[in-house]
Design brief:
The structure is a single chain. The protein has 171 residues and is mainly alpha-helical. The chain has a two-stranded antiparallel sheet with strand order 1-2. It is 68% helix and 6% strand. The two termini are 20 Å apart. The chain is extended.
């Protein structure tokens, strides 16, 4: 985690320079007043959506918790929606465009899947199971190879061409 934080200041500086460059280019194309109005309109829309997405995420989380289902899909969808609205609320054309893209349903599901994969890698499999439910995996194994030493924790071996279905319990 700390390794990634050292890149944050240069990344923020590059993002700021990119935002300024895009604003200048758009300002030259459509006029300074129109570009400024576009930034203000996008920020206002982002603030309105921030409240709506927050309430939507909270309702989805509560409904999943009351139904006894894992809240993970609602949480990831809510986080992506909140991130999209927050990026739209930030003053800037590039961040607004990225925020708007995160609010489009197919891209939102794609980003939610990425959030889920990152979360599953970072937390224990038990916590990931509590968040997202048990994972169904299908493992196809070929011919088994003889091993020099057999350990007691070897996974089950399927006959060639048959699948073993189960849940990942530990990684």
């Amino acid at each position: 985690m700390r390794r990634g934080l050292r890149y944050l200041p240069p990344a923020l500086l590059l993002l700021t320079l990119l935002e300024l460059a895009v604003f200048v280019l758009v300002g030259r194309a459509v006029g300074f007043g129109a570009a400024l109005l576009l930034v203000f309109a996008a920020s206002l829309l982002g603030l309105v959506l921030l409240r709506r997405e927050g309430m939507r995420a909270w309702r989805g989380f509560r409904a999943a918790a009351q139904a006894g289902q894992p809240p993970g899909p609602q949480v990831t969808d809510g986080l992506v929606g909140l991130l999209g609205a927050l990026l739209l609320a930030l003053p800037g054309l590039v961040s607004g465009a990225v925020g708007l893209l995160l609010l489009v349903p197919p891209l939102r599901r794609l980003a939610g899947g990425g959030v889920r994969r990152v979360t599953e890698r970072r937390v224990s499999s038990m916590v990931a199971g509590d968040l997202f439910g048990p994972r169904r995996v299908r493992v196809y194994q070929g011919q088994s190879q003889p091993t020099p030493t057999a350990s007691p924790q070897q996974p089950p071996v399927a006959e060639p061409g048959r699948a073993i279905e189960g849940e990942i319990v530990d990684r």
